[in-house]
Design goal:
The chain is of the alpha/beta class and about 325 residues long. About 45% of the residues lie in helices and about 20% in strands. The mean pLDDT is about 95. The chain binds adenosine monophosphate and magnesium ion.
Length: about 325
């Protein structure tokens, strides 16, 4: 079965075409176009306009690159939520138009669950992981338990990527700031204490962000502040992930989301996994970030398990939570 997936939850619009090969995800094409605000954060309507401008060409290019015909596509899936309303609507509208035109079924999927499933679908040996999902807007620790993907811990305020981007913006870095902070942090020599706030299994970053900005106003070296932000936030994320692994007794940990590109975060989580005798997995970068292939893959899994969705049911849900999804495709 060949599935085309459209991802459009925030700053990127992506189109991916996949095929299932004996339960694994084979990716034919996976194109992404990212909206970069000239200044400030993402403006939802501006991002949606960006997506509307590029989506038609992106679909044609994806089909071409995949070496398939429109007639070969068996299913169209799209990111139904969570995300920014105008962006979700643009992706959903494109998916409906395509599905109706080529007369193929449609499937709306949960974006966070797609991040987990693409790990299971593309990384050899990854079968039942605890996912540390670290992106711009989202930060969640997710694992399968009793028929659903449950959120074992999450941010109470902003996502880790957002925290890094906000700090970066305050010191004049360009979006995305995460990679630049990573480079600066490598030159940091001294740890500056920052709030380490874990409440139960949840995390908060905004106090730390303010404290980090205060260090800058007081003239502390930028490299030291970046180093301290990474050490503190990544330790918090690793701690919550470890507790979720201990609680669920799972033996695998998977990273997902744009911040998973960070080498220091990988190192910390990998060390934790090794100490527990667990396996550590990171998918390749192109499927870690927001992308159409993961949406296509989850669409396929849902359809293949017998789920069907009418056009009427394909309305978006900005607050579509991970644990609202009935996972019918896992035993
Ligand atoms: P996503 O929302 O999953 O597309 O991921 C985008 C986020 O990932 C942005 O907030 C980036 O700043 C962040 N990011 C990308 N690369 C890195 C990196 N190497 N280290 C930290 N954050 C990163
Ligand atoms: Mg994402």
């Amino acid at each position: 079965m060949i599935c085309l997936g459209i991802e459009g939850t925030a700053h990127s619009i992506g189109v991916g075409i996949i095929k299932d090969v004996k339960g694994n995800c084979h990716i034919f094409s996976n194109l992404i176009k990212t909206y970069k605000p000239e200044k400030g954060g993402i403006h939802p309507r501006e991002a949606a306009n960006h997506h509307a401008t590029y989506i038609a060409d992106l679909i044609s290019e994806s089909v071409q690159k995949a070496g398939v015909d429109f007639a070969d596509i068996d299913l169209v899936s799209f990111s139904q939520g969570p995300g920014l309303g105008p962006c979700l609507r643009t992706a959903a509208t494109a998916a409906r138009a395509l599905a109706l035109t080529i007369e193929k079924p449609i499937m709306g999927v949960n974006h966070c669950v797609a991040h987990l499933e693409i790990g299971r679908g593309t990384v050899r040996g990854c079968t039942d992981p605890v996912l540390l999902y670290v992106s711009g807007a989202n930060t969640q620790v997710i694992a399968f338990a009793e028929g659903k993907y449950r959120v074992f811990g999450e941010t109470l305020d902003i996502g880790i990527g957002n925290c890094l981007d906000k700090f970066g913006r305050a010191i004049g870095l360009e979006f995305p700031c995460g990679p630049k902070i990573e480079e600066l942090a490598k030159k940091g020599a001294r740890y500056l204490p920052l709030p380490y706030s874990i409440k139960g299994m949840d995390i908060a970053f905004s106090g730390l962000l303010t404290a980090a900005e205060n260090y800058i106003s007081k003239g502390k070296p930028l490299e030291d502040v970046c180093y301290s932000i990474q050490e503190t936030t990544f330790a918090m994320l690793t701690e919550v992930t470890e507790r979720a692994m201990a609680h669920t007794e799972k033996q695998e940990v998977l990273l997902g989301g744009g911040v998973a590109s960070n080498k220091r975060l990988r190192e910390m989580v990998e060390t934790m996994a090794r100490d527990r005798g667990a396996k550590f997995f990171v998918p390749s970068r192109d499927v870690c970030v927001d992308n159409g292939a993961m949406i296509a893959w989850l669409g396929f899994l849902m359809y293949d398990s017998g789920l069907r969705m009418s056009i009427d049911e394909s309305i978006i849900n900005q607050r579509y939570r991970t644990d609202m999804v009935e996972v019918s495709w896992r035993g």
